[in-house]
Specification:
Blueprint (H helix, E strand, L loop, with lengths): L13 E2 L6 E2 L4 E4 L2 E4 H13 L11 H37 L4 H30 L3 H6 L1 E4 L8 H15 L18 H6 L2 E4 L3
Antiparallel strand pairs: 1-2, 3-4, 5-6
Length: 202
Amino acid sequence: MPCRNHPDLVEGLVRCTRCGRLFCRDCVIQLRGFYYCGGCKAEYVRDVQSGTAPGTLDLASVGRRWGGSLIDTMALYAVFIPLVMGVGFAMAALGLATEGGGGAFGGVIILLTYGFLLGAPVVYEGLMVSSRGQTLGKMAVGVRIVSPDGSAVSRGQAWGRAVAKMALGSCAGITFLPALFTKDRTTIHDMVAKTRVVRVER
C-alpha cells in the first residue's frame, strides 16, 4: 500500500501509531520513539500538554486477539471443509474406478491435501500481514500487527511470525499462553518475529 499523502511512494513506509495509516518518512514525526502523522501529531501534543498522552503502544487485549484468530480460523475452515470433502469424494470415485484404492497416486493426492491444509494458513497470514498488518479477523476486531516502535512490520517479520504461529499453534496452542502473563501481551510468535498487536480504529 502507498503513502496516504504520496501515492507514488510504496517503499520505506511507517505506520502512524495513533491512526494506523501508512505514510512515508517525510509525512511523519517521531515522538518518544513512536511515529505520528500530521493530524495525529497535533492530537498527541495536546495530550502531552494535558498530561494524558500514553507512554506505550495501545496494546490489544488477549480477548480481542482470540476473537480475531477465531474469525480467521472460521474463514479458513469455510475453504478447507469443502476442499477435504471434494478430495474425499474424488478418492472414493478413484478407488471404485481402479479397484486398488488409488494406489500411489491416491497417496500423493492425500499428501498434497495435507500440505495445502498446513501451508495455506501460513500463506494467508504472511501475505496479509506483510501487505497491511492485518488479516480478515484482525480487521473485524480492530487490531493490527506492528513493530515494537509502532512502525509497519517488514516482510521478514510477517512471514516469520506466520510460520512460527503455525508451527507452535499446532502444539495445543502453547504459542498464545505467554500473552496472558507478559507486559506487552506477546505470544511466542510475537517474540520470534519481534512484533506487537495494537488496537486500531475499525
